[in-house]
Amino acid sequence: MMQVPFSVEARAVSLQEARSLYFGRGELPEALLDQNVLRSWERCRQAGLDPTRLAGGEPDVRGVTEARERNRTLISHAQPVLEHLFEQIRNSHSMVILADARGMVLQSYGDADFLSRAEQVALRPGTSWHEFERGTNAIGTALAERGAVNVFGSEHFFEGNAFLTCSASPIQDAQGRLMGVLDISSDYRAFQRHSLGLVKMSSRIIEKRLFESEFAHQGLLSFHARPDHVGSLCEALLAISQDGDLLGADQTALELLGLRREDLSRRHYSMLFDVPLGTLIDRARRDPSSLIAISGRNGERFYARLRGNFAPMSAPPSAIVDARGERLAARSRQEAPTAALPTDRLTLQFLSTGDERLQAAIDKGTRILGRDIPILIQGESGAGKEMFAKAFHNSGPRAQGPFVALNCAAIPETLIESELFGYSGGAFTGARKEGAVGKIQQAHGGTLFLDEIGDMPLSLQARLLRVLQERCVTPLGTNKSIPVDITLVCATHRRLKEEVARGGFREDLYYRLNGLCINLPSLRERSDIDRLIDKLLREEAGPDRQVEVSHKVMEAFLKYRWPGNIRQLNNVIKVAIALLDDDETIIETWHLPDDIFEEIGQIEPSVSHAPVGRTMADAVPQPATQAAAAAAAGMGRLEEIERDMINRTLEAENGNISSAARRLGISRNTLYRKLGRF
Ligand SMILES: Nc1ncnc2c1ncn2[C@@H]1O[C@H](COP(=O)(O)OP(=O)(O)OP(=O)(O)O)[C@@H](O)[C@H]1O
């Protein structure tokens, strides 16, 4: 273990000793160096770097311009932090540096005297401080080690850099990718112990800003075991879609939840916390600043706050089947990609799995491809209307053009106009200075998909009609008429004709939109559910894994009502696959989300769905009988009996959660939750 000498001078002396051991005698000075510095020296030596090489060099002006362009987002979020950081260290013979993920210095701020010294060793914008260019140094080594480091004086591999002391901390995005690195460099005699803490904290602020801006249109869940940490730099951040899909997590969230980053895509909100997402959303809408207590899957207590523009919902039992709330479904679609399918595969033909009504719709759509006929797609929420619209776009001659979607139900009425038509700078209060190009214009040469067209305010219906007639759009605040060439596809879950009869939708617009009317069947009406399930299983499980549903589950699926249609089925399959153990290939009832499990239980007598007490009693004869007897005699509380049975079953199954859940006749999720509660 390294001995940290008290003074800068003593440290400099011990480093000289370390260098002569390493470079002179070829020995590893493990007791004299931090392990990350030693590993870096080894990497440099293996790369053939010469420690006596001159450390200077000219900046690459073109390279840095390109790097700044590539890293625009990083720079915009880091700039204010850099400036603030520099304020903290001003007049201390130091500089602060932002470098990209390849070690290229993008920006620096510093005291004039130190900047000119730093320039002599090329520590300035336009030079790369990757380890293989500059040897061991805080920027390059933090990137290589993926962690914060101090590199002091002669710890620098190149002798010419030994006058420096540097502290750097990497910056990662919500997917854990390296975005860049933040560094404070000074003269080694001005070494400050707190520099490392400062760069760590500052890079954390930048990460937080990147995270929040990336997911500004999604749900952001901030949580921590300590309520006072929520809202502070210590909080954990999770990005979630309204359907409960996990879109990103910061390092703190992964640590608090005991997850690896690669687990994220296999998890769903409902598998991590006990409070249904709907409850959090409702709470956030009613009182955005309030904290709510939630428990993790192992019973850990957290305090959480949800931010985001979620559509209203009234606390359904689980986020998975929230799809039955049509508003919710409509909202989430605008915010998340519709499907994980590569666009080139998503054609009309790809949607065909044998249902006659769907096939008729596909045939009709195929026949009008390339003709200038607007389509109106009607169908229940989650039936695949947007998917159909995308497939239609991808199958026709405009496939290379843009597909632009706007959900009229998901944004406030007052914003639809500016979103759709665009505006010039300063057109209205709150408008962006530079103005914005509207969706109609964005769709030029491609397809404009207007979802929930029935929710378009009457006043805008007239403007939309004019665009369709004149094929020109006039952004707000301008007199300019811009020609547009778009194919229009609209969708609604309402019967638009009835809306017309009620006076809520203009008749002339209705006929203008309704060149071809496609009615998509709801899932329960489809004759190809089994084939669709196979297809979704293949897509979700991936090419290397074969997963099937059991007979019982298939039977129950075929009878189930599927109020959330394909969206709900998709979510159920996603969760079930995530709940499978690595060696399991068949989805059984206990792999289903709790609420589906229970509902399916009600429609399928052969499926185990007895009330918890009875099922458990069947599953664990001996202790259960005692417990049942105790209950009958009024000697125990139900919860105690349940706890007792769970403990015994777990014991009998050697702690294996899957087997215990199976024996108890409850899902693994439920078992986790119950364990958390005890
Ligand atoms: N044929 C299909 N194959 C695979 N997944 C599908 C299919 N059709 C729909 N889905 C999936 O179901 C979900 C809902 O589809 P989509 O958004 O197209 O429905 P919608 O009818 O537009 O819903 P809403 O009215 O709520 O906006 C999406 O996640 C989509 O990926």
From TrEMBL:
Keywords carried by this UniProt record: ATP-binding, DNA-binding, Nucleotide-binding, Transcription, Transcription regulation
UniProt-listed Gene3D superfamilies: 1.10.8.60, 3.30.450.40, Homeodomain-like (1.10.10.60), P-loop containing nucleotide triphosphate hydrolases (3.40.50.300)
All copies of domain Sigma-54 factor interaction, residue ranges: 351-578
Protein name: Sigma-54-dependent Fis family transcriptional regulator
InterPro entries on file: AAA+_ATPase, AAA_lid_NorR, GAF, GAF-like_dom_sf, Homeodomain-like_sf, HTH_Fis, P-loop_NTPase, Sigma_54_int
Lineage top rank: taxon: Bacteria
GO BP annotations, alphabetical order: regulation of DNA-templated transcription
GO molecular function per UniProt: ATP binding; sequence-specific DNA binding
Matches recorded under PANTHER family: TRANSCRIPTIONAL REGULATORY PROTEIN
